[in-house]
Write a structure and sequence with these properties.
mainly alpha, 61% helix, 0% strand, Arc Repressor Mutant, subunit A
Length: 111
């Protein structure tokens, strides 16, 4: 079992490195969508935390409880993201159509 855990850990580390190396290419490909995402979220920490939680595994209620965002604000945010093609079809368990790094909303410039 330890050998299997070691292999899994190694694969996860490799995945993280590949993501890090691919980030500039992903950012270039998704530049317009990322700019729109930043426009929609603005300077709101609650919205930023909510967007980062949208991985498709949580319901809107789960996200609201986790991030403490007002439910009305979350519903409006989800609607705006969907209208701008930033969410997949299932708005009950929202998931972004683009990948973003965990520090995406901390960055100062749109690269």
């Amino acid at each position: 079992m330890d050998e299997q855990n070691d292999r899994l850990k190694a694969v996860q580390e490799i995945r993280d490195l590949v993501r890090l190396m691919a980030e500039p290419a992903i950012a270039a490909r998704d530049k317009n969508l990322r700019s729109e995402l930043k426009r929609i979220v603005g300077n709101s920490d609650a919205k930023a935390k909510s967007v980062l939680a949208m991985d498709g595994s949580k319901t809107q209620g789960d996200i609201q409880r986790e991030t403490k965002i007002n439910q009305g604000y979350l519903s409006t945010l989800v609607k705006q993201l969907k209208e701008n093609n930033l969410l997949t079809d299932d708005v009950k368990k929202p998931r972004l159509t683009i990948s973003i790094p965990s520090n995406f909303f901390e960055e100062e410039s749109d690269e």
